Amino acid sequence: EVQEQRQKEAGSQVQLQRRIQSLRAEQEQIKQTAMLNSAENDKLEHRQAELEEHLKLMHEKLQSSRRDATRKFQLRMGEVKADADKKLQATDSVLLKIKKNVE
Q1: Quick one: pLDDT band at residue 81, thresholds 50, 70, 90?
Q2: What is the pLDDT of residue 91?
Q3: DSSP letter at 1?
Q4: Quick one: how far is CA 19 from the chain centroid?
Q5: For range 26-50, the mean pLDDT
């Protein structure tokens, strides 16, 4: 009976040792996965920083392009206004000559 008890205890110890080994293997796998996830997270954070920088540059280019377009438009409108003023003065001058001739 004592030997039977010892065999049961030995069997229980073997089961416990196997369970411990299994848990250690699982723990190691979790550590490996955590390291891989950490590395992947670092890569993703780096990529996010790159994308944020790219977005910032694109926004700056867009703002610069808008400023350039506004400036060019204003310059062109100034040229059109100056041309229209010249034509209006020429028309006024012709009208004044016609008025003098009519009188």
Answers
A1: very high
A2: 96
A3: -
A4: 48
A5: 96
DSSP per-residue codes, 32-90: HHHHHHHHHHHHHHHHHHHHHHHHHHHHHHHHHHHHHHHHHHHHHHHHHHHHHHHHHHH
Residue range 55-64, pLDDT digits in tens: 999 999 999 9
> Token pair of 18, please?
């196997």
pTM: 0.56
> Position of tokens 């310059």?
75
Coil/strand/helix, residue 18: helix
* Three-point CA angle 54, 57, 59, nearest 5°: 110
Whole-number Å distance between alpha carbons of 26 and 16: 15
Query: What six digits make up the tokens of 40?
Result: 């992947």
CA dihedral sign, ordered 91, 92, 95, 100? negative
